[in-house]
Amino acid sequence: MLIRKMWRDLLKSKVQFLSIFLMSLLGMYVFVGLDSEANGMRVYEESYYEQNGLADIWVQGKAFTDDDLRKIQGISGVIKAEKRLNIDGKALMPGDRELNMQMNFIDASEISRMLIVDGEPYTPGESGVWLDFIFCREQKLGIGDSIKLKADGKEFDEIIKGTFYHPEYVYFLPDAAAVMPAYGEYGACFIDSSEYPVRDELYYNLITADLEGVDNTGGLSDEEKGICQKAGEMISDVLNSEEIVTTNKNENLSYQTFHAEIEQHASMTYLFPIVFLLIAILGIITTMTRMTSRQRVQIGTLKALGLSKRTITIHYASYSFFLSLMGSIVGALLGYCTIAELIIGMEADAYLVPDMSKAFSVRAFGGIAVSVAVSTLVSFMSCRKQLAPAPAETLRPASPKNLKHSAIEKSRLWLKLDFATQWNIRDIMRNKVRSAMGVVGVLGCSMLLFGAFACLDTMNFITSWMYGELNTSRYQIIMKQGTPYTVTEEYAKKYSGQMIENAGVEFEVNGVKKSGTLTVYDVGNYLHFEDKNLKEMSMDGKGIAMTYKMSRTLGLAQGDMFRWHMVGDDKWHVNRISAIYRHPTSQGIAMSRDMFEGLEFTFIPDTVYTNKDARTDLDGDDNIIGVQNKDEMMDAFDSMKEMMYTMVYILVMAAVVLGIVVLYNLGVLSLVEKNREMATLKVLGFTTRKIRGILQMQNIWLTALGILLGIPAGMGLVSALFASMPESMDYIATYSVPSVMYTVAGTFTLSIAVNRLLSGKVKTVDMVDALKGQE
Amino acid sequence: MPFIEFKDVERKYMLGENAFYALKDVNLEIYEGEMVVILGPSGAGKSTLLNLLGGMDSPTGGEILFNGHDIAGFKDDELTTYRAWNVGVVFQFYNLIPTLTAYENVALMRDVRNNVKKGSIWEQESGGAEVLDPAQMLASVGLSEHMHQFPSQMSGGEQQRTSIARALAKNPRLLLCDEPTGALDTGTGKEVLKLLQKESREEGHTVVMVTHNSFFADIADRVIRVKNGTVQSVETNGTPKDAEEVNW
């Protein structure tokens, strides 16, 4: 019978209970949606890498021999090792189009195996080319078609034998200048080493190895990192060369980007549900405290009839239990079907993997359990007060609250306040929990709205920061690998450009190695640097500056010494950090050409920044990879915003639902409780308009306070969101004045609209009914 | 041996540092199957006496013996078991659960028995009496037609009869009635009194009724007068009237 009582009570006060249901639903909607997506990617990542045997380490060098390979294979702990030539080549397509092609000339494919989509699997010694599936699909190439390729300046034809997905090509970019992938416009391929155009000139610059004790599950643990580092040192020893660079999976762009994306999504999973759970808790406290207070005599009766305190407690706790259980399950299912589906669909476009799908995790069930347990516990705590006394006491009406005058009521100011203000101050002071919940509801709503706008602000800022402040050139001429300095210099002179060299470096601090980038700049006005407060800084040309994020990662500060070497060069250098600068997408060090040459390096620029349009002039030029213009690069970067837009829509939707639910719920509660007071005011001669004005006044106060707290909370939310970005990204959370204005306007509009809707009920307050004696 | 015995019972409340006695030095006896009326003006301590009898409150001194067991020192859960097996309560304002129908309000007593601690002395003494059929109980108070109505759809008299059916459904050894006609008109009140008298006379239930209406003294086997928290007198009525004959 108590279950029937519960359902009927729920139906009777459905508006108040709806908020508990909806908050549980929203919390689990976002949590399970994001978690199922992140978990789906994580499960997929592990099985995909495991199934296709992603290498554990990559050893880069200039020319590895068979003997080198044998020595590495002989190292204890190395299960397998393979050598290959990995170079940037070209696919020469009809219409004189040259598309970037990452080429791998291989002897075997036991490590980092191709997952064949169409065609035949690779067998050593076999002719033909295996191309990435998306490239073939976008370029409309099929099995058996012939394709013209160019490697190290030599053209050759191959028959397409197969298409693949590959664990090392889950994420890759066409060249150093690219920011975002556009798969299909460039590709990757595997060819047997016997097919290298000039056999005698074949060289191997990469060795991949599979190590004992390192697997592809659960990311790279500290122990696994140690094994990789030790293997790298042993390889240096056996080859007696420090000219090689060993990288592990965490330093592999493809693995690291995909893995960081998953981790970032996973870390975001907890942010939003906590907000909704907090609101649900406040909702439960308000609703259950009031309900048990209204049902005080019923509780006394149940006790007097012989129901145990335990049974009655379970009865009242079950209201929240069932509501949050239903809300959580519905939310979890909806989140799984919508959010997870939507995001995983978008991720499938950003990464080259087949059939990635969402997956429920134990955390989803854990999330539901936590949500239900917290809601039930809060409900139990809220009704405990009414359950404690003896039935004889509970059967009597509650003694009135011992009202005390607050400080403001005792002040002189009080008498100068008008009736509406006095009435509202007293109402807030005497209904603290309800008022606090209103503030928290508005806080949550404005926090989410502001968070949504600030995400867009940040993305817009990053684009303008990168292409408007740090790099002011309109065009970038990307030189081919190995182009002599004198040739590049001619281009720089012709187009009044600034020469830049980009390279990979490795840092070592306290035994920990980290990969990063090196930017060497020649004289010019296109490349700019900004300090950690984003103030333009002039580089004196004598020191080495480090990016803010890299210095944080390495635990270094300006003036500290650090050890580094260039990839492909065995000489380690120890230098002092002369300055700290910030860059959104590239973390490492920067120095002037003079400084670089002072360290006995040869300056070989690979990019020329210019404002002159060189696209027509240089079309088909043999020395360059291509000319990129700023608008195209900004467009490519903007494509990243699509994901952000989806997030923004979800946030705005959640904010609106949250705002409406909390404010409507509290409004109804407040109206029910103030029914007698409003009827009295009406009898005394107050107009409906005046009474609605009084209610709206309180609403505006609480909304204003909620917004005041919500905007800083939104800032915190966005900061936390961007702080969870991968190590290579330094996105600075940015907030604009219009975003503040939109948030304030949006929240006030919502709040005032809900209040107007509710205060319309003042008209229907029946003075006779409301003022009858209470039962 | 008396069925219920109060020995030097007191119930005091602390108001700040001052003690207020709702009951003091109360001594009385009630025998099984009797219909007892406790009479007294407002604030005399009648309801406090009823609450102590029903195990809804505990005294601050003295002994309350129910069938020889002292319930005065019972803990919360012991009192719950006591109420669940022994006591039926009829309230002045009926106290029906508004979201349950008449039938469900009576059937609620099954939940009471199902959730009570098993193997208690009360269970043994009552021989594990079953909860009576709610439909039959409602029929016995003349409410077969209203079984599926919610309290808000019934008149005061119908609600009070439902309340009596609920109290009797667990076949209690003690039926406590707190001003059971207080919210009813004379005609309906008389019907309720008839029902209660029938329970005492025909079913052998011990009925204790608290009222300020002295006319009800005529129908009682024993009348206990209370004033200022003390028992003023205990009278035995050799020839109690039928409820039908009482007028007020």
What topology does this entry show?
The complex is a heterodimer of chains A (775) and B (248).
Chain A: H1 2-12, H2 14-51, E1 57-60, H3 66-73, E2 78-93, E3 97-106, E4 115-119, E5 129-132, H4 133-138, E6 146-151, E7 154-165, E8 187-192, E9 206-211, H5 222-238, E10 245-248, H6 253-268, H7 271-294, H8 296-304, H9 309-337, H10 339-350, H11 362-387, H12 391-394, H13 407-410, H14 413-416, H15 419-430, H16 432-470, E11 475-479, H17 485-494, E12 498-509, E13 512-521, E14 529-530, E15 536-537, E16 544-547, H18 548-554, E17 561-566, E18 573-581, E19 588-592, H19 593-598, E20 607-610, E21 624-629, H20 630-638, H21 641-673, H22 675-684, H23 688-723, H24 737-759, H25 767-771
Parallel strand pairs in A: 3-8, 5-7, 13-19, 16-18
Antiparallel strand pairs in A: 1-9, 1-10, 2-3, 2-6, 2-9, 4-7, 5-8, 6-7, 11-20, 11-21, 12-13, 12-17, 12-20, 14-15, 16-19, 17-18
Chain B: E1 4-15, E2 18-30, E3 35-39, H1 46-53, E4 61-66, E5 69-70, H2 76-86, E6 87-90, H3 102-114, H4 121-125, H5 134-140, H6 156-169, E7 174-178, H7 186-203, E8 206-211, E9 222-227, E10 230-236
Parallel strand pairs in B: 3-8, 3-9, 6-7, 7-8
Antiparallel strand pairs in B: 1-2, 1-4, 4-5, 9-10
Helix pairs in contact in B: 3-5, 3-6, 5-6, 6-7
Your description of this structure?
The complex is a heterodimer of chains A (775) and B (248). By secondary structure, chain A is α+β, with helices and mostly antiparallel strands. Chain A folds into four domains: 1-51 and 259-400, no CATH class; 57-213, no CATH class; 411-458 and 638-775, no CATH class; 475-612, no CATH class. Chain A is 51% helix and 18% strand. Chain A contains 25 helices and 21 strands. Chain A has a six-stranded mixed β-barrel. A six-stranded mixed β-barrel of chain A has the order 12-13-19-16-18-17. A two-stranded antiparallel sheet of chain A has the order 14-15. In chain A, helix 2 runs antiparallel to helix 7 (271-294), helix 2 packs parallel to helix 10 and helix 16 packs antiparallel against helix 24. The longest helix of chain A is centred in the middle third of the chain and has 39 residues, at 432-470. The two termini of chain A are 24 Å apart. Chain B is of the alpha/beta class and 248 residues long. Chain B has one domain (34-56, 85-245): P-loop containing nucleotide triphosphate hydrolases (Rossmann fold), CATH 3.40.50. Chain B is built from seven helices and ten strands. Chain B has helices at residues 46-53, 76-86, 102-114, 121-125, 134-140, 156-169, 186-203, and strands at residues 4-15, 18-30, 35-39, 61-66, 69-70, 87-90, 174-178, 206-211, 222-227, 230-236. In chain B, the strands form two sheets. Chain B has a six-stranded mixed beta sheet with strand order 6-7-8-3-9-10, sandwiched between helices. In chain B, helix 3 (102-114) packs across helix 5 (134-140), helix 3 runs parallel beside helix 6 and helix 6 (156-169) packs parallel to helix 7 (186-203). Chain B is globular. The two termini of chain B are 35 Å apart. The interface between A and B is medium-sized, with 27 and 36 residues.
